[in-house]
Amino acid sequence: MRPETLDNLHRILGDKGIVTGADVHEGYYTDPRGLGDVRPNVVLRPASTAELSQIMKVCHDTAQPIVVQGGLTGLVTGARPQHNEVVITMERMNGIESIDVKAGTITVLAGTPLQVVQEAADAAGMVFPLDLGARGSCTIGGNLSTNAGGNRVIRYGMTRDLTLGVEAVLADGTVINSLNGFMKNNTGYDLKQMFIGSEGTLGLITRATLRLYPKPKTQVVAFCAADSFDAVADLMAHMRTGLGADLSAFEVLWAKTYAAVLSDVAGIKAPIPQGHAFYVLVEMMGSDAAHDTEKFETCLGQALENELIVDAVLSRSNAEIDALWDVRDGMAHAMGKQQPSVGFDISLSVADMKVIESELLRRLQAALGDVRLFIGGHLADGNLHLVAKSLKEGPQPRDTIQEIIYGWVGEVGGSISAEHGIGLLKRDYLAQSRSPAELALMRALKLTMDPKNLLNPGRVFDMGTAPMAGNAKAPTP
Amino acid sequence: MRPETLDNLHRILGDKGIVTGADVHEGYYTDPRGLGDVRPNVVLRPASTAELSQIMKVCHDTAQPIVVQGGLTGLVTGARPQHNEVVITMERMNGIESIDVKAGTITVLAGTPLQVVQEAADAAGMVFPLDLGARGSCTIGGNLSTNAGGNRVIRYGMTRDLTLGVEAVLADGTVINSLNGFMKNNTGYDLKQMFIGSEGTLGLITRATLRLYPKPKTQVVAFCAADSFDAVADLMAHMRTGLGADLSAFEVLWAKTYAAVLSDVAGIKAPIPQGHAFYVLVEMMGSDAAHDTEKFETCLGQALENELIVDAVLSRSNAEIDALWDVRDGMAHAMGKQQPSVGFDISLSVADMKVIESELLRRLQAALGDVRLFIGGHLADGNLHLVAKSLKEGPQPRDTIQEIIYGWVGEVGGSISAEHGIGLLKRDYLAQSRSPAELALMRALKLTMDPKNLLNPGRVFDMGTAPMAGNAKAPTP
């Protein structure tokens, strides 16, 4: 960056708004995959939409690429600085702007941590239902730009579904204020959709108006065992019909994943003995304090009677609810402990979930010999997480494992990223889930909104001249 | 159109696929506002996505503008042919392609009537919850391209929220197949959002994969009277908290609207006498056959006790449910009977709804003398419908009424179109709800996806060189 550009940025942001050289600490280039290999020279810390607009004008005029950062908790290397990129952090644009209980809305700055939004909603007697493990450090801006999912998508939807309005700054500094607070607003194109889930490549989200919901009055959790995948699928349909809109989670652990949770995660007590094929956490959040538990028990009793499940434990207290969720959340910890290994976050049809373990083990073992596979996730959302690990000595054959698994996901028409996004990490496999025509249209939209390719360049897809489809690894036959 | 172009189109579509000259019947240029003043010379009737793609290539090569038609039930003159436009009707792309009860999805062709989709879902033991008066003739493609709302948005959302995947044909014939069937799919830009709610200006929707829900087990309706708007707003919060996700409708009629329903619509019996300020229909759709009615009664009893409502009638049978809904639906009929008059479909904050009647009557009467105003709608969605009528002899002063009402809506930050869209009818007022920067971005997106301005040209906004903001009528002070 030329000194006069730095001076311009300094004039806009003041001393507090800019960090350079040796003062740039590791927090600006570390994410869940570890310390990045590019230390940024300049970190910009705008305190307002106006400041962000002005610095983007400077960056646009000087063709300076930027990477935007929220809480740096993303799992696909989207926020790590690359060569020549200046960091724009949203850490000073942090706070609740307003809350309207009657309308059921909250307006927050993009750098606000998710947990702060949850707590503000709670204090107002409402609930902001987005929830994920990184709640304490991830930011709303990051949640929006990655369209975060989490544990209660089945009931409340993805971040996109929880968002009424967005304010964003375009690459040239233009402020797009679509801070709509209405559930219904058919006045031209719904521009907020451009910024949600596009991973910071089309604009920088600065504020959002989000939906709040009444607090549920009841919460009941069951942990069940089933002996076949068909039984699990039937249980899902049964609980959906029985609980209606009150079904709030349906989480499944494959047997080997359950075994790993019990053996590798400290402090987890088995609610049900091992020896079954599948373990399911079902949760209900209802509005009828007098009868919800009875409704849930009736529904679960029918499932036992119809042999959809062979064993079940029902929560009788908040402590027991927490203990059962600890088993489910132990899945992430157990998968994390398999390092070195290769992780996946995919969407599949129910029919493909049925065969995923046998099919992928067959393909992986044919190519790599002994392989372990840990599978589980948000079954009712169609979303599974999995970890594959070659038992051979030496570094994990990451490319081969990815080619085999993404190849199969592409073959069966699944999604290579259900909730984590693409970032840099999955970019080369995007064409497994999207057609050449779709990728060409994405590029055309990017070119329209960010003609100099300055916003998070290279994330999601590359703007290079090679046709997108050519970037994809060929699926392994 | 030149004869060789017509020949090309004929070759693609065959005899059944093209109607010209005197064979073009009035159905192709009549909508709820009556017979259009432009009779189209050519109507194209593609039977498949492939045929539509080929004819769009021809239209693109010859710069032939088109207007796309579903059921022609839209209320904003979006589907009426304009000079030089060729009609493309989706009437032959009609049918259910597949239904997957376990996944809760249905894939349908764009020309399928909404009611056919509802009935297919019902036959499979599920529900497709989008519902509006035109269900028998409106098509799914039209519902999607206008992001239709309807009566149960509070529980199930708008059409956008019910849509998982879309296939569409771009202006140049490119097929964008984003027929995703997953709730979670963060693989690059969510392109279906470009086609939903953009009123056919960015692409022609050919197929969609939609969400199905389990059938509710119970339905209970109450019709209530309240003596102040504050009481109505408190009732809404109370029922939301009390019924949680089971609250499926909260519809409000202002006193004069209720009076008009009772006096002007045949066959409506007053469930509650006149003399109150507001009348409210509350509906619950639940999953607990044993206890839902009790929960609803308890909730309503508290509302009576706390004097949020002063009278209430509860449905005791399906016939009574229908009769209470007839009163609510009578609102549309009563508003229709005020012709000549000027209709509106707006979103507002609860605070602005409280003053809408007094504020608009004051402004309208100052300009026009004696004026009648009929107000009511989906309060919990933030969406009101209203009809204004000058009592002076002669044609309605439509422009003045629109300027005053849209001017006020713009002033208070409301939306000039909650669910009907913009079309040609509201185009000149779009800038009351959207900023110059938003309108410029809309135009840039249109230019990218339809560079020759061939798809529904002039609907939503004009691509002319004048800045968009200049098109807006100035709000009346």
Automatic annotation (TrEMBL), chains A, B:
GO biological process per UniProt: respiratory electron transport chain
PANTHER family the record matches: D-2-HYDROXYGLUTARATE DEHYDROGENASE, MITOCHONDRIAL
Family of this protein: Belongs to the FAD-binding oxidoreductase/transferase type 4 family.
MF terms in GO: FAD binding; oxidoreductase activity
UniProt protein name: FAD-binding oxidoreductase
Keywords (A to Z) from UniProt: FAD, Flavoprotein, Oxidoreductase
Pfam families the UniProt entry points to: FAD-oxidase_C, FAD_binding_4
InterPro entries (alphabetical): FAD-bd_oxidored_4_C (IPR004113), FAD-bd_PCMH (IPR016166), FAD-bd_PCMH-like_sf (IPR036318), FAD-bd_PCMH_sub1 (IPR016167), FAD-bd_PCMH_sub2 (IPR016169), FAD-linked_Oxase-like_C (IPR016164), FAD-oxidored/transferase_4 (IPR051264), Oxid_FAD_bind_N (IPR006094)
Organism lineage string: Bacteria, Pseudomonadati, Pseudomonadota, Alphaproteobacteria, Rhodobacterales
Residues covered by the FAD-binding PCMH-type domain: 35-215
Record has DNA repair as a keyword: no
Cofactor: FAD
Domain of life of the source: Bacteria
